[in-house]
Amino acid sequence: MADFMEMVKWDKLMEATRETMYMTSISVFATFVLGLLLGLLLFLTDKGNIWANRTVNVVVGGIVNIFRSIPFIILVVLLIPFTKLLLGTILGANAALPALIIGAAPFYARMVEIALREIDKGVIEASQSMGATHGHIIFKVLIPESLPALISGITVTAISLIGFTAMAGIIGAGGLGNFAYLYGFQGNKPIVTLVATIAILIIVFIVQFIGDYFTKKTDKR
Amino acid sequence: MISIKKVSKIFPSKQGHLKAVDDVNLEIQEGEIFGVIGYSGAGKSTLIRMLNGLELPTDGTVTVAGRVISKIKGAELRKARQEISMIFQHFNLLWSRTVSENIAFPLEIAGVNSSQRKKRVQELIKLVGLEGRENAYPSQLSGGQKQRVGIARALANNPKVLLCDEATSALDPQTTDSILDLLVDINKRLGLTIVLITHEMHVIRKICHRVAVMESGSVVELGPVLDVFKNPEQPITKRFVQQVTEPEETKETTQHLLELYPHGCVVQLSFVGETTEQPLITNVIRNCDVVVNILQGKISHTQNGSYGTLFIHLDGQVSEIQKAIDYIHSQQVGVEVISNG
Ligand SMILES: Nc1ncnc2c1ncn2[C@@H]1O[C@H](COP(=O)(O)OP(=O)(O)OP(=O)(O)O)[C@@H](O)[C@H]1O
Ligand SMILES: [Mg+2]
């Protein structure tokens, strides 16, 4: 047992956990904002909606589909020049962020679009009949009415982002993925890998719990 | 208050064009409850949606409360819409908001401040009889209660016109009646002009002053409700009128009556307006030597008088029966002899 306590470098584990949480929280926040914008744009420019515009809809839809289809690990490699240009380095937690956000936002954008489509058209029409502006419709109808779905969507996205951070870790972004690879795999200590896995699972469960709680709390249907 | 001039609406469709509304002309007075009746697909919703600019006419002009709705856009149209409220068949409430918050929604849109909003919401809750349900969510309400929220929401900004698109079609008969009573009450109390579309003659009969009958995009008959009941001209109007005046299965029952009463004669009386309020049968028995047997009847009350039918059986000497029929006729009651025994 003492062996085990020594084998795992606890301070390194804590640091790796902090890095994972850092990457996850920043990228979840940015993904939420960017995905919500793209999702709203996709929904509103669709046929029969208030900003109906075929060109914008097809272009945005195309970009979203392309980025959603690229496997994450390839996206990281593809984005290396961009990241370097942006941050001057491709190492460290910050360097993982562009790939995480660009990888997850299109995924979330589609979920936002689906959530918005679930809203009864009659409700939008009723707001228009009361003289609502587009701003009223977006902020007082679309977002509040789809909130439970937006929250459960960002929960699912956050969990895949945790997975992505681990992958990004292997190519030098730090975090629990990097920790498991460096000390567990390369150091040939399966126990360490197991500990890292448990740490990731705990984070995932906490995120799931919080997400479910707020999804339920906002759902008044 | 509302003027619809030469209005047509054409929807482009794959198999040529679809004329949903075809050259409609209507003038609706201030304070009037105006009904539009027609079967599914007649173009009723399309017509009413042009009154608040949710749909633009292909041709013609729509003027509501002095504004040419079919011409204005943007901020001006939004301002106009605050004076032309609408209620819907499926209520269209925001499920994420409580009753109070739903009613406050149009006030938020109009930029009313929060303390005035609270006050107004309280008034409206009382007006529609939803005290105690302020903090319920729509999912916790019955259909009738949801429509009350819809009505309160529609009245929030003191509109001049209330549009009702099949507002009672999703409700049971009893709840329908209570919602209709509420609409009449609002019309009387606030002097609100109401335009109501429906496929149920019962609704027209109960609350409308005038009615327009629509068939494939056109208004085929128009007039005060009682006149239309008295004298339906078009076959479609006759069918709608029968929905409420004729007792169910009239044909079968008259057949049955004829078999039951081989002597004397079976007579159908139709009453309109004040004639329903006199002691007709008593007078017949006093004046003529006949036996009167009431078989079946139905009287409907409309906003401008009553209308009804009554089947009676008269027995006695032929001359006395004729005297009775003449007497009834002299009282402005329609008489139709169904058989001579
Ligand atoms: N946005 C639209 N695009 C194309 N056709 C439409 C559209 N809206 C309505 N129509 C057509 O116009 C006709 C009239 O429709 P409308 O909804 O006005 O009928 P309605 O009298 O309200 O019927 P219901 O009692 O079923 O509501 C129908 O044939 C319908 O298919
Ligand atoms: Mg309709």
Produce a short descriptive summary.
Chain A is mainly α and 221 residues long. Chain A is 85% helix and 0% strand. Chain A is elongated, with a radius of gyration of 20 Å.
Give a description of the structure.
The complex is a heterodimer of chains A (221) and B (341). Chain A has a domain at 21-172: MetI-like fold. By secondary structure, chain A is an all-alpha fold. Helix content of chain A is 85%, strand content 0%. Chain A is built from 10 helices and no strands. In chain A, helix 2 (10-44) runs parallel beside helix 6 and helix 8 (134-173) packs parallel to helix 9 (175-186). The model of chain A has no long low-confidence stretch (mean pLDDT 91). Chain B is built from 12 helices and 14 strands. Chain B has helices at residues 44-49, 74-81, 99-109, 114-127, 143-155, 173-190, 201-207, 225-230, 235-245, 250-260, 280-287, 318-330; strands spanning 2-12, 17-28, 33-38, 59-64, 67-68, 84-88, 161-165, 193-198, 210-215, 218-224, 265-272, 290-302, 305-316, 334-340. In chain B, strand 12 and strand 13 (305-316) form a beta hairpin. The longest helix of chain B is centred in the middle third of the chain and has 18 residues, at 173-190. Chain B is elongated. The model of chain B has no long low-confidence stretch (mean pLDDT 89). The structure holds adenosine-5'-triphosphate and magnesium ion. Magnesium ion is lined by residues 44-45, 166 of chain B. Residues 44-45, 166 of chain B line the site of magnesium ion. Chain A: Residues 17-211 form the ABC transmembrane type-1 domain. Chain A: It is a multi-pass membrane protein. Chain A: Keywords: Cell membrane, Membrane, Transmembrane, Transmembrane helix, Transport. Chain A: This is ABC transmembrane type-1 domain-containing protein.
